[in-house]
Amino acid sequence: MDTKVWMYLIYLAVSVGLTIWVARALARNGQVFLEEVFADERLARAVNSLLVVGFYLLNLGYVTVSMKHPDPVDSTSQAMEELSMKIGLVLLVLGALHFFNVFALGRYRRNRLRQMAPHPPLAPIGRLPMPYPPVPHQPAPQPVGAPPVGPQPGGTGPGTNPPAR
Fold it and tell me: How would you write 127-141 as a 3-class SS string?
C-alpha cells in the first residue's frame, strides 16, 4: 500500500478514537455539571445526549473534511509530519468545542442563579429621598381658658417684650 493510504488510515483511527474517548469522558463527567446548570436531572440527561451527538457530528465532520491532502507523500517522515498536523488540528477543534460548551453553559447557569437570588446582587449605595416634604411643626393646641402663649397683638401680654423707651 501507498504511504499516503497508511497515513489516512492512521489519521482516521487516531482521530475517531480520540473523538470517542473525549465524548465519553465529557458525557460522564459533564452530567454533574449539567444537573447543576439545569436543576433538573431529566433535562440534564437530555441535554447531555444532545451535546454528545452534536460533538460527534461536528468533530467527525471536521475529521473527514480535513482528511484530504493534495500533495504526494514520498517519505515516512513527511507522512508523520502531515499526520501530526492533522491530529493536532483535530485536538484543537475538540478543545474549542469543549471550551465553547462550558462557556455557554456557565453563562446560562449564572443567569439562572441571578434570577433565583432572593436579594439584590449589590448592596444599596444610599436611600432615596422622601417623596413628600415633611409636615411643618404646628404648635400644640391650648386648653380653653388658659392664657395665650407667645407674642400677642397689641404688644402687652405674657410673652411680649415691654415697650422700649
Answer: CCCCCCCCCCCCCCC
Under a CB-based contact definition with an 8 Å cutoff, are residues 159 and 153 in contact?
no
- Cβ atoms of 30 and 51 within 8 Å: the answer is yes
The residues, any chain, with a CB within 8 Å of residue 148's CB and separated by 6 or more, are 142, 157, 158, 159
Q: Which amino acid does the sequence have at 56? A: Y
Cα-flanking dihedrals φ and ψ of residue 78, to 5°? -65, -40
Grade residue 118 by pLDDT with cuts at 50, 70 and 90: confident
Enumerate the H helices of the chain as residue ranges.
Answer: 3-38, 41-65, 76-116
State the Cα–Cα distance between residues 66 and 90, nearest whole angstrom.
Answer: 9
The better pLDDT of the pair 129, 143 is held by 129
Measured distance CA(27)–CA(40) in Å, rounded: 16
Q: pLDDT tens for residues 38-73?
A: 888 899 899 899 989 988 998 888 888 888 878 888
Inter-axis angle of helices 3-38 and 41-65, to 10 degrees? 160
CB 86 within 8 A of CB 66: yes
Percent above pLDDT 90 for the chain: 6
